[in-house]
């Protein structure tokens, strides 16, 4: 009966902790609101460790408070000489052994989770989707292996299945982090390819960010993971595979923009399935959640960005004043109509930047 | 061979005295003053960081300058503030606690200080020419490709001051092994001395790793090698390993002496001997040992694989055991005692819950898989500030209030001390507790700015407000120091009813420390004598002539030479003309070394008759 009570009590503690901590943050960026397999597994591990730690803390604070109240020197006792105790073997063994046991309780699920999150066995599966992630100062490139799809900044994945990431960097060390669906992993330069997997439970737009200091615009190196249902994802895949980079835009301004883009921007940027260049692949640009990862996707912002990139993202590679403001406006018209797929962030539940605050 | 040097007064003479001193107590003053100065600079940098992060999308400083701020804040606080203040305490206290008249190598002690100071100055000169901006961890290739000379300043500055630290560490190791008073066995050493002993050992093994890393970085940046350049077959991750093989023990190098100081303070102000002394010694050694085994826990997300991650996770968790032993032993030292809440006791008492929180988040971080979420976020920022500020800075404040009378002959004002404490303590928790949550809510560290609408606004604002409280607390401490220097009364030799040897001599001590070397008859030797009704220590030797080393300007000159050469190394990349500075600087250094080798300097004696008259006190 008493053992049962104890279990029940820890269950209550665990539940209360979960409730309190999950009240924190915005749904699509908080590690405390897991929306995918990795973040969920880690969240459980976090809760176990917090529960153990709180247990220890309560004991320490109980002794601490008692000692400080009970043994304060009282008026008139200034000459009192306490007994000079040397130590106590039994006590010292107790506070050595109990922590060891507590740590073992934590170590086992830690090791399990560490191996689980490193599991690559599913990657050999033919249907498994592998995406090559490349970190760049200060943007992310995504190449869908064997699918002839290449995109930047917005990463589309199907819900309910594991998507494997092969990750590296083209310059300095970055770290790929989508708190609400998985932990983070560094992208290293060289042949050091790291792997991890993403598995999102529900459709949604999840915020990702770079977590390793990579230069002045480190804090502006955002990206989004857009999880859509497998059906929508297949649709998106097909649309992306059928991009015609040469397709004529409808409006005259956009047509001029296309020409300007081809003359001025193609040495760094690409549209279609071409691999990463110096700059991001701009397929699907009209559907992007954000411009450069941080600006609302309006034409005004885009023109600003094209003409003054260094003011918006200090230290980035895009040259300023490559084109005039008028030309930039036409290029913007062209880029914003590059919406190659019906499947957009909105179809995954919108740009959940709005409405979810605390 | 002269007798005691006549005391000249006047500012010039006083400055010359400090430039040439080899007296460990004066070197302690130098370490404290320069460490304190760098602490203020580091604090100013921290305030600028917090002002920038006060609200989302702030543009108080630019992104580039922000990266320089965080780099210099971290580097300054660890290398130029925490380390020297620890060395100040070591110098001021350890020889006195073991009943020695000096350290083993007084000349080297002075050299260690000047190397540290000139290294620190090089680092801070970079503020005028472009500071390092690759983070205090200076990861390659961000650091190797960083434009300008900022990272070169980092490399040269740390190399020079690191050499000073290594010299200091070796000096204390030898001092503690060789120069203990008769009767002071290892298991009778005060715990502060024990922690300094273990810390010095850690310095001996950890700093060479940093030295090697910095040399590789220096050659990559200044002489065209490619240790970290992937395009030429190098490997960037090697820097991370070298840095953390040094960097992790560094944390324990800093924290262990603070543990030692707390042990002394808990014991003195509870009027009890330390509970579980031998367990404490064992725990200290064990923490030092394990500190070397766990560096890769800074690298869980580098991609070392699940096996390495698991091993380092479990090894890291193991450190919680000896640390836990310490926490419980401190509490049981107070148990049954008679606790006096002086300012230094207040800092020590506040340390227990604060450090326990830091230790707990440390264990949480050790869970490798969970670290995939915590790593490089404000959760980590919160954790290491709880450990380093909650452990080390609290420890420094506690120790300074405790040993100030011994160092300067004046007792710090208790009233102002308590104001400092409460403002700093409340400010600290306001600043950093909330950062745990900011991190879990998705705020990475080293972010120049954060975006609106991510739920991070309130937390950051509170954090900034707390930082201001800490700053006010620090200013009050400065006022306290100045006020006491001007108005304070002469302290007695033993103002706290102390238990260890340093309290058996006058405050401040004469420059030969002990007129007669004391005989140690147990743990807490002064307490042993007092409890037998005696006023002071039983001497172990008859009164006789005391041999003391002569002051020397050579350590200063050697360091100055390296300082000059440092600029030569940095700028010869632009123009080979700068190599002239390398030759001039190295010439000064080697010339001074030659002088030192060729010139006989066997010190001087303080004669028995003068001692009887009380000269030199």
UniProtKB/TrEMBL annotation, chain A:
Note describing how the cofactor binds: Binds a copper A center.
Lineage top rank: taxon: Bacteria
Reactions catalysed: 4 Fe(II)-[cytochrome c] + O2 + 8 H(+)(in) = 4 Fe(III)-[cytochrome c] + 2 H2O + 4 H(+)(out)
Start and end residues of each Cytochrome oxidase subunit II transmembrane region profile domain: 23-121
Entry-linked PROSITE patterns: COX2, COX2_CUA, COX2_TM, CYTC, PROKAR_LIPOPROTEIN
EC number: 7.1.1.9
Protein location: Cell membrane; Membrane
Record CDD domains: CuRO_CcO_Caa3_II
Alphabetized UniProt keyword annotations: Copper, Electron transport, Heme, Iron, Membrane, Metal-binding, Respiratory chain, Translocase, Transmembrane, Transmembrane helix, Transport
Compositionally biased intervals (Low complexity): 346-358
Pfam families found in the cross-reference section: COX2 (PF00116), COX2_TM (PF02790), Cytochrom_C (PF00034)
Cytochrome oxidase subunit II copper A binding domain sequence ranges: 126-239
Residues that span the membrane, as ranges: 41-69, 90-111
Bilayer topology: Multi-pass membrane protein
Region annotation Disordered: where it falls in the sequence: 339-358
Cofactor(s) demanded: Cu cation
Family statement drawn from the similarity comment of this UniProt entry: Belongs to the cytochrome c oxidase subunit 2 family.
Primary role: Subunits I and II form the functional core of the enzyme complex. Electrons originating in cytochrome c are transferred via heme a and Cu(A) to the binuclear center formed by heme a3 and Cu(B).
Name of the protein this chain belongs to: Cytochrome c oxidase subunit 2
Protein's organism: Halobacillus shinanisalinarum
Gene that this sequence comes from: coxB
UniProtKB/TrEMBL annotation, chain B:
Pathway involvement of the protein, from the record: Energy metabolism; oxidative phosphorylation
Topology term for the membrane: Multi-pass membrane protein
Major subcellular site: membrane
Annotated transmembrane regions: 30-53, 73-94, 106-128, 153-179, 191-219, 242-262, 274-295, 307-325, 346-370, 382-404, 416-441, 461-486, 553-571, 577-595
Pfam families registered for this protein in UniProt: COX1
EC number: 7.1.1.9
Catalytic activity reported: 4 Fe(II)-[cytochrome c] + O2 + 8 H(+)(in) = 4 Fe(III)-[cytochrome c] + 2 H2O + 4 H(+)(out)
InterPro entries: Cyt_c_oxase-like_su1_dom (IPR023616), Cyt_c_oxase-like_su1_sf (IPR036927), Cyt_C_Oxase_1 (IPR000883), Cyt_c_Oxase_su1_BS (IPR023615), Cyt_c_oxidase_su1_bac (IPR014241)
Keywords: Cell membrane, Copper, Electron transport, Heme, Iron, Membrane, Metal-binding, Respiratory chain, Translocase, Transmembrane, Transmembrane helix, Transport
Locations listed in the record: Cell membrane; Membrane
Superkingdom of origin organism: Bacteria
Top enzyme class: translocase
Annotated Cytochrome oxidase subunit I profile domain residues: 10-521
Role according to the record: Cytochrome c oxidase is the component of the respiratory chain that catalyzes the reduction of oxygen to water. Subunits 1-3 form the functional core of the enzyme complex. CO I is the catalytic subunit of the enzyme. Electrons originating in cytochrome c are transferred via the copper A center of subunit 2 and heme A of subunit 1 to the bimetallic center formed by heme A3 and copper B.
Family that this chain belongs to: Belongs to the heme-copper respiratory oxidase family.
PANTHER family: CYTOCHROME C OXIDASE SUBUNIT 1 (PTHR10422)
Protein name in UniProt: Cytochrome c oxidase subunit 1
Organismal lineage: Bacteria, Bacillati, Bacillota, Bacilli, Bacillales
């Amino acid at each position: 009966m008493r053992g049962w009570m104890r279990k029940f009590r820890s269950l209550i503690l665990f539940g209360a902790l979960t409730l309190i901590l999950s009240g924190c943050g915005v749904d699509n960026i908080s590690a405390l609101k897991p929306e995918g397999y990795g973040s969920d597994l880690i969240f459980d591990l976090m809760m176990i460790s917090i529960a153990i730690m709180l247990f220890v803390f309560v004991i320490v604070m109980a002794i601490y408070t008692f000692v400080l109240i009970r043994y304060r020197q009282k008026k008139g006792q200034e000459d009192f000489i306490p007994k000079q105790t040397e130590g106590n073997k039994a006590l010292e063994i107790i506070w050595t052994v109990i922590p060891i046991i507590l740590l073992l309780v934590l170590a086992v699920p830690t090791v399990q989770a560490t191996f689980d999150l490193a599991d690559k066995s599913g990657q050999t599966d033919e249907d498994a989707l592998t995406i090559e992630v490349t970190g760049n100062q200060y943007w992310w490139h995504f190449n869908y292996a064997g699918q002839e799809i290449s995109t930047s900044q917005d990463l589309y994945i199907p819900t309910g299945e594991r998507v494997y990431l092969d990750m590296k960097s083209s310059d300095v060390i970055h770290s790929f982090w989508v708190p609400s669906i998985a932990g983070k992993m560094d992208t290293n330069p060289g042949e050091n390819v790291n792997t991890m997997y993403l598995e999102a439970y529900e459709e949604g737009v999840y915020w990702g960010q770079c977590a390793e200091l990579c230069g002045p615009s480190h804090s502006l190196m955002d990206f989004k993971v857009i999880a859509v249902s497998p059906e929508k994802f297949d649709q998106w895949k097909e649309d992306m595979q059928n991009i015609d980079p040469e397709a004529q835009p409808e409006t005259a301004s956009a047509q001029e923009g296309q020409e300007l883009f081809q003359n001025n921007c193609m040495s760094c940027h690409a549209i279609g399935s071409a691999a990463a260049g110096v700059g991001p692949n701009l397929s699907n640009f009209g559907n992007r959640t954000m411009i450069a990862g941080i600006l609302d996707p309006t034409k005004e912002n885009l023109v600003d960005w094209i003409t003054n990139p260094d003011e918006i993202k200090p230290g980035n590679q895009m040259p300023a004043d490559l084109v005039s403001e008028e030309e930039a406006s036409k290029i913007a018209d062209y880029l914003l109509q590059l919406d190659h797929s019906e499947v957009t962030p909105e179809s995954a539940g919108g740009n959940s930047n709005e409405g979810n605050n605390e | 061979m002269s007798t005691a040097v006549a005391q000249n007064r006047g500012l010039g003479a006083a400055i010359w005295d400090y430039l040439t001193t080899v007296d460990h107590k004066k070197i302690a003053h130098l370490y404290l003053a320069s460490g304190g100065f760098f602490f203020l600079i580091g604090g100013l940098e921290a305030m600028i960081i917090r002002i920038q992060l006060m609200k989302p999308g702030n543009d108080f400083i630019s992104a580039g300058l922000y990266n320089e701020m965080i780099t210099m804040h971290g580097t300054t606080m660890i290398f130029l503030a925490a380390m020297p203040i620890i060395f100040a305490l070591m110098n001021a206290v350890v020889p006195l606690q073991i009943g020695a008249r000096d350290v083993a190598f007084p000349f080297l002690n002075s050299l260690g200080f000047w190397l540290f100071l000139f290294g620190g100055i090089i680092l801070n000169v970079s503020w005028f020419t472009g500071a390092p901006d690759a983070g205090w961890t200076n990861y390659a290739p961000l650091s190797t490709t960083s434009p300008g000379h900022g990272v070169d300043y980092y490399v040269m500055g740390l190399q020079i001051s690191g050499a000073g630290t290594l010299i200091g560490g070796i000096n204390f190791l030898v001092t503690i092994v060789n120069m203990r008073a008769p009767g002071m066995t290892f298991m009778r050493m005060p715990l502060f001395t024990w922690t300094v002993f273990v810390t010095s050992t850690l310095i001996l093994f950890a700093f060479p790793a940093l030295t090697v890393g910095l040399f590789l970085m220096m050659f990559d940046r200044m002489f065209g090698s490619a240790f970290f350049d992937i395009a030429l077959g190098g490997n960037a991750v090697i820097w991370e390993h070298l840095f953390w093989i040094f960097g992790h023990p560094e944390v324990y190098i800093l924290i262990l002496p603070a543990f030692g100081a707390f042990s002394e303070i808990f014991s003195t102000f509870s009027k009890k001997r330390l509970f579980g002394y031998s367990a404490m010694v064992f725990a200290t050694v064990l923490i030092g040992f394990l500190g070397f085994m766990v560096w890769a826990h800074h690298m869980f997300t580098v991609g070392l694989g699940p096996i390495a991650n698991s091993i380092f996770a479990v090894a890291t968790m193991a450190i919680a055991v000896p640390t836990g032993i310490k926490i419980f032993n401190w509490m049981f030292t107070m148990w049954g005692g008679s606790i006096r809440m002086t300012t230094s006791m207040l800092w020590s008492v506040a340390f227990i819950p604060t450090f326990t929180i830091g230790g707990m988040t440390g264990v949480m971080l050790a869970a490798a898989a969970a670290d995939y979420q915590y790593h490089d976020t404000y959760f980590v920022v919160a954790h290491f500030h709880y450990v380093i500020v909650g452990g080390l800075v609290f420890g420094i404040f506690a120790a300074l209030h405790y040993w100030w009378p011994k160092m300067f002959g004046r007792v710090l004002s208790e009233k102002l001390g308590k104001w400092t404490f409460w403002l700093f303590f409340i400010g600290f928790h306001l600043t950093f507790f909330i950062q745990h949550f900011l991190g879990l809510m998705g705020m990475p560290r080293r972010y120049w700015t954060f975006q609106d609408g991510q739920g991070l606004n309130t937390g950051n604002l509170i954090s900034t407000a707390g930082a201001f409280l800490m700053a006010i607390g620090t200013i009050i401490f400065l006022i306290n120091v100045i006020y006491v220097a001007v108005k304070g009364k002469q302290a007695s030799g033993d103002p706290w009813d102390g238990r260890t040897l340093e309290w058996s001599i006058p405050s401040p001590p004469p420059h030969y420390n002990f007129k007669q070397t004391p005989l140690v008859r147990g743990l807490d030797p002064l307490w042993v004598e007092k409890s037998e009704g005696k006023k002071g220590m039983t001497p172990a030797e008859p009164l006789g002539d005391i041999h003391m080393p002569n002051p020397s300007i050579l350590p200063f000159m050697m360091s100055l030479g390296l300082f000059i050469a440092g600029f030569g190394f940095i700028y010869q990349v632009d123009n080979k003309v700068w190599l002239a500075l390398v030759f001039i600087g190295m010439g000064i250094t080697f010339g001074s070394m030659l002088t030192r080798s060729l010139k006989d300097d066997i010190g001087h004696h303080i004669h028995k008759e003068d001692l009887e008259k009380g000269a030199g006190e």
